[in-house]
Specification:
Blueprint (H helix, E strand, L loop, with lengths): L4 E11 L4 E8 L12 E7 L5 E7 L9 E7 L5 H7 L6 E8 L11 E6 L3 H12 L2 H4 L4 E7 L8 H10 L3 E7 L9 E2 L6 H5 L6 E6 L1 H13 L7 E5 L2
Parallel strand pairs: 7-8, 7-11, 8-9, 9-10, 11-12
Antiparallel strand pairs: 1-2, 1-6, 2-5, 3-4, 3-6
The structure holds flavin-adenine dinucleotide.
The site of flavin-adenine dinucleotide has 20 residues, from strand 4, strand 5 and helix 1.
Length: about 240
């Protein structure tokens, strides 16, 4: 099956820390680019030797009227695509296909724990902004975000999540640092250390987990050890 290829023009980029960028793209030639929060795009780039690279990037923004999609891209050392994306200038274009993926909110809406580390926040940011923007979507369910990073400067979109939590009493934002400085007043350690106290002995919730495979496996195994069934645990692995 042939998928449609789109051109996406970079309209804004902003550093999130030394290695990571938020990139806003405008999909060209369509009035409104449809996708479901949590999905990803397949990005293409031709190297100087003619080889075509293809990599997946989660859409970090909620669906919008202006046809824009955001990526949250971490520069991987010697990584071909991540460095190409982070060096793009405003106005430059890339080719992509999609949207793809089934890491999306599964109805019916339940109380939910979102677990992310690093750029694994991208699809979860899209889901949270979308679901919290309309009461009929979240239905007052309790939503927790356990977002793990190393240090204070690594917490992408911190102000946005603080703002969301201030405006939605059912959204509980729990940034967690493994190497927080002495002034850090939030949670410390690894994300999986904080999930049991949220879940308690409940098994009627959903968990959405995104990040590198090791973290995803650790948290999936944890949910199973707490007695959750596999249909209640949705995940996306980046490696
Ligand atoms: C569904 C999906 C969604 C994704 N969404 C995002 C996203 O939103 N943001 C994002 O930054 N990445 C995301 N990724 C990862 C992305 O697709 C690339 O794998 C990553 O950017 C590295 O590609 P590269 O071409 O720069 O590195 P490559 O040239 O492929 O690899 C260079 C070196 O880095 C290592 N490496 C590869 N990937 C990673 C990694 N993720 N972390 C650490 N080391 C790695 C390789 O083993 C290799 O040694 C996603 C992956 C999947 C499968």
């Amino acid at each position: 099956m042939a998928f449609q290829t789109y051109s996406a023009r970079l309209v804004r980029s902003a550093p999130l820390n030394d290695l990571t960028k938020h990139l806003d793209f405008e999909i060209q030639g369509v009035p409104r680019f449809g996708f479901v929060p949590g999905q990803w795009l397949s990005v293409k780039h031709i190297l100087p030797d003619g080889e075509e690279l293809t990599r997946a990037y989660s859409i970090a923004s909620p669906p919008s009227e202006n046809g824009r999609v955001a990526f949250c891209v971490n520069r991987v050392q010697d990584g071909l695509m991540s460095n190409f994306l982070c060096e793009m200038k405003d106005g430059e274009e890339l080719r992509c296909q999609g949207p793809f993926g089934n890491f999306i909110l599964h109805p019916p809406m339940r109380d939910t724990i979102f677990i992310a580390t690093g750029t694994g926040i991208a699809p979860i940011r899209s889901m949270l902004h979308w679901v919290l923007s309309d009461e009929s979507r979240h239905q007052g369910k309790q939503l927790w975000l356990v977002f793990g990073n190393r240090t204070e400067k690594d917490i992408y979109y911190h102000d946005g999540f603080v703002h969301l939590a201030a405006h939605h009493l059912n959204f509980h934002y729990q940034p967690t640092l493994s190497r927080g400085g002495p002034k850090w007043g939030g949670l410390r350690g690894y994300v999986q250390e904080h999930v049991p106290s949220i879940a308690g002995d409940r098994k009627d919730m959903h968990a959405y987990i995104c990040g590198l495979a090791k973290m995803v496996k650790t948290n999936r195994d944890l949910m199973y050890s707490l007695g959750w069934d596999s249909k209640s645990v949705l995940s996306e692995r980046y490696d």
